């Protein structure tokens, strides 16, 4: 088997090992050296890796793991799917800042998952005309100002499919994160929209073929919807629902979360109103407000200021200072984390220290720039 095919097979096989979750898998690859070494290394060496027991080593060595991977690779090649392993440079870079991000993603289509501006739009399956109209107007306005914007959602009924269709109508690229394998489309009623999306977007999933659209899978995929974007916008939501789960995950990932308010008597707005009331989301009234809050308005860029020399910066503070010096208009914290290869949770502590030293300032949308 060619070297690349062997590597791809091992990447798939890594996700087929019972008892090995995404964090375990990442640790295995890092400790072993690469994905092939995980299956090539001697058992006694693997057992020295923290949290890798003899039982897990036996699962890694089980021939059924490779057999499953071979069947999946056949499916991938037959259907011309793209694969994104977490070490692949084309893997969604924002996701790599999330501790529980998928090790491997399967995709159909040709979207760029690392565009400069990405939003996720989520909401109730029982969308009202108010929610649908707001969704369409927001995306149409954003498309006019940012034609390279990528819109992510989940292809579900209601707000999800409304967001995808609005993006297509406005000429934007749009990606659906699925809760099942790429051997099916769910719901079937949205097949036509899904096919249209492949021209300028993609369908993406962490699940192999023959994975059914079970409820838990949709909850699990919500972390991808949250992690791939700069901001998550909740259009409408009842008091409970997947949209609220996505919003909570987005907050844990330090993403900006917005919610569209509604009347207190409307069931479809109760979730959004609660997010706003509990300071879990910023109240969103229109596209221009969103642009301002995300600091995306480039019409009046401030003139670069002469940088002063700071002699009392730690090594990590100096790294951040030098990175910010390359961005006169500031940089979003998630992109800064990617650039420096530092988890956002760690960045925040150092950025706070720099703010207290009057070296940097925090702007709306999680953007930081030098003073």
Descriptive account of the structure:
The chain has helices spanning 3-14, 22-32, 35-40, 43-46, 54-61, 63-78, 129-145, 159-169, 191-200, 215-227, 242-252, 270-277, 287-293, 315-324, 333-340, 344-356; strands at 82-85, 104-109, 118-122, 150-153, 173-177, 202-205, 231-234, 256-259, 282-283, 331-332, 360-363, 367-370. It has 371 residues and is of the alpha/beta class. The protein folds into 3 domains: 3-78, DNA polymerase, domain 1; 118-293, Rossmann fold, CATH 3.40.50; 315-370, Arc Repressor Mutant, subunit A (Orthogonal Bundle). The strands form 2 sheets. The protein has a 9-stranded mixed β-sheet with strand order 1-2-6-5-4-3-7-8-9, sandwiched between helices. Strands 10-12-11 form a 3-stranded antiparallel β-sheet. α8 (159-169) links the parallel β4 and β5 (173-177).
Helix content: 40-55%
How widely separated are the two ends? 56 Å
Q: What composes the largest sheet? A: 9 strands, mixed
Strand content: 5-15%
Q: In angstroms, what is the radius of gyration?
A: 22 Å
Provide mean pLDDT, rounded.
91
Approximate shape: globular
Output the keywords.
single chain, 371 residues, alpha/beta, DNA polymerase, domain 1, Rossmann fold, Arc Repressor Mutant, subunit A, 3 domains, 9-stranded mixed beta sheet, 16 helices
Summarize the structure.
With 371 residues, the chain is α/β, with parallel strands linked by helices.
Per-chain topology:
Blueprint: H1 3-14, H2 22-32, H3 35-40, H4 43-46, H5 54-61, H6 63-78, E1 82-85, E2 104-109, E3 118-122, H7 129-145, E4 150-153, H8 159-169, E5 173-177, H9 191-200, E6 202-205, H10 215-227, E7 231-234, H11 242-252, E8 256-259, H12 270-277, E9 282-283, H13 287-293, H14 315-324, E10 331-332, H15 333-340, H16 344-356, E11 360-363, E12 367-370
Parallel strand pairs: 3-4, 3-7, 4-5, 5-6, 7-8, 8-9
Antiparallel strand pairs: 1-2, 2-6, 10-12, 11-12
Helix pairs in contact: 1-6, 7-8, 8-9, 10-11
């Amino acid at each position: 088997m060619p070297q690349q095919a062997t590597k791809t097979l091992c990447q798939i096989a890594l996700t087929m090992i019972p008892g090995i979750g995404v964090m375990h898998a990442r640790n295995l690859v890092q400790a072993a050296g690469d994905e092939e070494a995980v299956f090539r290394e001697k058992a006694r060496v693997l057992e020295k890796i923290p949290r890798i027991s003899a039982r897990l080593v036996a699962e890694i060595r089980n021939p059924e793991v490779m057999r499953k991977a071979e069947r999946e690779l056949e499916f991938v090649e037959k259907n011309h799917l793209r694969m994104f392993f977490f070490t692949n440079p084309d893997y969604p870079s924002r996701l790599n800042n999330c501790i529980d991000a998928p090790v491997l993603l399967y995709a159909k289509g040709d979207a760029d998952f690392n565009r400069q501006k990405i939003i996720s739009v989520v909401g109730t399956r029982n969308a009202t005309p108010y929610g649908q109209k707001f969704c369409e107007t927001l995306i149409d306005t954003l498309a006019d100002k940012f034609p390279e914007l990528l819109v992510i959602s989940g292809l579900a009924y209601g707000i999800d499919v409304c967001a995808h269709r609005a993006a297509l109508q406005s000429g934007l690229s749009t990606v659906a994160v699925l809760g099942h394998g790429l051997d099916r489309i769910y719901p079937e009623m949205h097949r036509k929209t899904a096919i249209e999306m492949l021209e300028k977007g993609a369908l993406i999933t962490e699940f192999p073929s023959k994975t059914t659209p079970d409820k838990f899978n949709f909850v699990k995929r919500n972390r991808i919807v949250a992690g791939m974007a700069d901001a998550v916008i909740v259009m409408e939501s009842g008091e409970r629902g997947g949209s609220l789960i996505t919003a909570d995950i987005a907050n844990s990932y330090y993403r900006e979360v917005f919610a569209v308010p509604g009347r207190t008597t409307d069931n479809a707005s109760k979730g959004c109103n609660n997010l706003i009331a509990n300071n879990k989301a910023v109240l969103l009234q229109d596209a221009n407000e969103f642009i301002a809050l995300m600091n995306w308005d480039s019409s009046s860029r401030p003139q670069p200021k002469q940088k002063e020399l700071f002699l009392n910066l730690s090594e990590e503070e100096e790294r951040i200072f030098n990175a910010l010096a390359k961005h006169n208009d500031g940089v979003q914290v998630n992109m800064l984390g990617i650039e420096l290869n530092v988890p956002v949770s760690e960045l925040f502590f150092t950025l706070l220290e720099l703010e207290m030293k009057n070296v940097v300032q925090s702007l709306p949308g999680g953007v930081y720039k030098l003073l």
